[in-house]
Amino acid sequence: MALDQIHERTKPYAIGLVVGLIAAPIIRFNAGWITTTTTGTLAAETARVDARTGVC
Predict the structure, then answer these.
(1) Residue 29: its pLDDT value, please?
(2) Is the pTM of this model over 0.90?
(3) How far is CA 20 from CA 13, 39, 54, in A?
(4) Concatenated DSSP letters for 3-37?
(5) Which residues of 26-52 are buried (b: 16+ CB within 10 A; e: fewer)?
(6) 38: helix, strand or coil
(7) How far apart are CA 16 and CA 46, in angstroms?
(8) Residue 1, pLDDT above cutoff 70
(9) Which residue would you say has higher pLDDT here, 33 or 10?
(10) How many CB atoms lie within 10 A of CB 53?
(11) Using CA of residue 21, residue 24, residue 29, residue 35, what is the dihedral sign?
């Protein structure tokens, strides 16, 4: 198999890899699948306040 044939056969996979590497983090952050430190801290604080509200 010549180098040109290998290049032509692997080109779609390489393009898909690059597009996936760029698109995956964008999709994950926009969909809320990744929890950042600030989001986790805010969720913990909200849960703590909600738990103490029932006691008071």
Answers:
(1) 82
(2) no
(3) 10, 25, 46
(4) HHHHHHHHHHHHHHHHHHHHHHHHHHHHHT-S--H
(5) eeeeeeeeeeeeeeeeeeeeeeeeeee
(6) helix
(7) 41
(8) yes
(9) 10
(10) 8
(11) negative
User: Contact, 54 vs 48, CB < 8 A?
Assistant: no
At 10, is the pLDDT very low, low, confident or very high (cuts 50, 70, 90)?
Answer: very high
Please name the helix (run of DSSP H) or strand (run of DSSP E) that holds residue 52, with its range, or none: helix 37-53
Arithmetic mean of pLDDT, 25-49: 83
Do 34 and 28 touch, CB atoms closer than 8 A?
Answer: yes
Contacts with 18 (C-beta within 8 Å, 6 or more apart), sequence order: none
Tokens 């983090």 map to which residue?
Answer: 25
In one letter, which amino acid is 29?
F
